[in-house]
């Protein structure tokens, strides 16, 4: 009788332990599935809320639709003053620069950050001076460690002509971001290098269906890559 009781107690203990372990696994799974990933879009046009901003927002919208874990945020630099990097300056000296970069820096340091979508207009077949200044100031994200390393980065470029230097802008931005050891991504088919939009409709960039589609494809690609790279 005593042996039967001991056996029952032993089996009951195993069942309780298994139930606890199952609950722990379920809790861990739920925690992992609910982990949020932030995709940040940066519009580097001096014209706040215009075509570049609209294109970046379209990319962010597509990114958010990829998975419930994706969260997005737009940093529209239009109207902000972002000064370039001083020659020979060190990242630690950035605090001496008086401009608007400190307003956006916390978002770029957010531990949830999983990827970036950077947008710029094409001016004289090159990125905007605001975009160049932004990229230079991101040097503070390189030390003491590379905060953007292994994070996917995609680019959205807007030009006054269909072939107005958009692909050159994409190349320039991605080349700069390689200094952070990021993972450069393009988009889905027909947008392999990145998003290229044509402002041919008096600032209504949504009428460029091909370009808007390329922006969406970049957003999707950045989101998918960010989820795959989650640790």
Could you characterize the architecture of this molecule?
It is a single chain. By secondary structure, the protein is an alpha/beta fold. It folds into two domains: 1-34; 36-228, Flavodoxin domain (Rossmann fold, 3-Layer(aba) Sandwich). The protein is 41% helix and 16% strand. The chain has six helices and six strands, in the order αβαβαβαβαββα. The protein has helices at residues 2-33, 51-64, 101-108, 129-137, 166-177, 209-228, and strands at 37-43, 70-76, 113-121, 152-159, 183-184, 195-198. Strands 1, 2, 3, 4, 5 and 6 form a six-stranded parallel beta sheet that branches. β3 (113-121), α4 (129-137) and β4 (152-159) form a beta-alpha-beta unit. α2 crosses α6 (209-228). The protein starts with a helix and ends with a helix.
CATH architecture of the largest domain: 3-Layer(aba) Sandwich
Kindly estimate the percentage of residues that lie in beta strands according to DSSP. Answer: 15-25%
Classify the fold: give the CATH topology of the largest domain.
Answer: Rossmann fold
**Estimated structural class:** alpha/beta
In the CATH hierarchy, what is the class of the largest domain? Alpha Beta
Number of domains: 2
Q: Number of helix segments? A: 6
Largest sheet at a glance? 6 strands, parallel
Helix content, binned percent = 40-55%
Global Rg:
23 Å
Separation of termini? 52 Å
Question: What overall form do the CA principal axes indicate?
Answer: globular
Order of helices and strands: HEHEHEHEHEEH
State the fourth-level CATH superfamily of the largest domain.
Flavodoxin domain
The tally of strands reads 6
| Weakly predicted, low-confidence segments | 17-33
Q: What average pLDDT do the residues reach?
A: 88
